């Protein structure tokens, strides 16, 4: 499995994120493309994420007298030029040799937080050298000692928040990977973990080597007491990612979470789970301002960022588009993705009559999901 990418080519200056994705798809081997783009099962939730966002109709304000929009904000105590952070995504060296280092450098230059993943193919220490504002994402591992070690490494590297992903007791059955018998090339590995007896590199005649590896190292018994243990283990803000039910969001806040991320893992876990945009308003109402509510799964434009804010989100996590940009042109490609998002979001604010991010959260929407309090 080789990676075909370069900084050159016909999509150096794409005009939207869909164009970046098309350029990346043309460069990447089919199994890598499927690993990134695919969802679980029949990909019902994957498709529903996009449809639900498209169903959110914004009600722009007029005669607002807004001449320029301020896109800056703060996310979980981290200053950001946009209400956007780069989501945790593993194995980024699959799409470009510089992997997470290049993506983090692009995020740092753009002034948005970058989330280092447990399954990162570059170490948190290497990534910290970019100077980007970093968060660190944890999967709950069978080895509690390794969890504690990763927390300590994240703190020592200057990470500003811990993001604990709670919707992967086991990896969803991602049929594209199963059919492709997807494994990692020997040049790419989760550097924060030991390969152990069940390696993601092992050739398999049936199934996904990556799923085999995660099943061996992830702890499916992860529960509320473990979250309490983690909260007591670190002074960093705790962000709980993968929440859809308002009852779980409330419990997270009760246990000291500074933020929750409304997410169905980009349609890659329970197929049939609610689209994140449908779940978001209910979670916002349940949390009632006691913690920040971030959003991911399906964000593909600056208008999508505005939609999430109008539904009550503090900000969004951006996932797959960063990988597509990285595949097209490394750091420059990822930077172009964030540049496009900034341009689109700033214009969307102006067209909606919003002077800043706070004003965007006051927009009303017309949509199928329950309407937020105060909106018509």
Automatic annotation (TrEMBL):
One of its GO terms (molecular function) is FMN binding. InterPro entries: Aldolase_TIM, Alpha-hydoxy_acid_DH_FMN, FMN-dep_DH, FMN_HAD, FMN_hydac_DH_AS. SUPFAM superfamilies: FMN-linked oxidoreductases. The active site is at 265 (proton acceptor). Glyoxylate binds at residues 139, 174, 263, 265, 268. It holds the Pfam family FMN_dh. The keyword Flavoprotein applies. FMN binds at residues 88-90, 137, 165, 241, 296-300, 319-320. Keywords: Flavoprotein, FMN, Oxidoreductase. This is FMN-dependent alpha-hydroxy acid dehydrogenase. It comes from Actinosynnema mirum (strain ATCC 29888 / DSM 43827 / JCM 3225 / NBRC 14064 / NCIMB 13271 / NRRL B-12336 / IMRU 3971 / 101).
């Amino acid at each position: 499995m080789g990676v075909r990418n370069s900084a050159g080519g016909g999509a150096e200056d794409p005009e939207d994120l869909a164009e970046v994705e098309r350029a990346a798809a043309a460069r990447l081997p089919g199994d890598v493309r499927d690993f990134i783009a695919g969802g679980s099962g029949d990909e019902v939730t994957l498709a529903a994420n996009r449809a639900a966002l498209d169903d959110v109709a914004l009600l722009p304000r007029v005669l607002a007298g807004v001449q320029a929009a301020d896109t800056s904000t703060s996310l979980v105590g981290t200053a950001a030029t946009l209400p956007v952070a780069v989501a945790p995504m593993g194995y980024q060296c699959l799409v470009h040799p510089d992997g997470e280092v290049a993506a983090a450098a692009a995020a740092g230059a753009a002034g948005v937080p970058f989330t280092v993943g447990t399954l990162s193919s570059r170490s948190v220490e290497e990534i910290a050298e970019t100077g980007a504002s970093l968060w660190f994402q944890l999967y709950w591992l069978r080895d509690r000692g390794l969890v504690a070690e990763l927390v300590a490494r994240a703190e020592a590297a200057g990470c500003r928040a811990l993001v604990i992903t709670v919707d992967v007791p086991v990896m969803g059955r991602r049929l594209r990977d199963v059919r492709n018998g997807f494994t990692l090339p020997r040049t790419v590995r989760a550097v924060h973990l030991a390969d152990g007896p069940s390696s993601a590199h092992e050739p398999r005649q049936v199934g996904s080597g990556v799923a085999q590896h995660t099943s061996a190292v992830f702890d499916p018994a992860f529960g509320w007491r473990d979250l309490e243990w983690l909260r007591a283990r670190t002074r960093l803000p705790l962000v709980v990612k993968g929440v859809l039910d308002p009852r779980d969001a409330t419990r997270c806040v009760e246990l000291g979470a500074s933020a929750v991320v409304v997410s169905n893992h980009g349609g890659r876990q329970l197929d049939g789970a609610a689209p994140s945009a449908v779940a978001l308003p209910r979670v916002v109402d349940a949390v009632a301002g006691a913690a920040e509510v971030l959003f991911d799964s399906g964000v593909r434009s600056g208008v999508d960022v505005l939609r999430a804010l109008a539904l009550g989100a503090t900000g969004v996590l951006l996932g797959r588009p960063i990988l597509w940009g990285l595949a097209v042109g490394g750091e420059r490609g990822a930077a172009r993705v964030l540049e496009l998002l900034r341009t689109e979001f700033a214009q969307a604010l102006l067209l909606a009559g919003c002077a800043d991010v706070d004003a965007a959260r006051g927009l009303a929407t017309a949509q199928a999901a329950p309407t937020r309090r105060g909106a018509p």
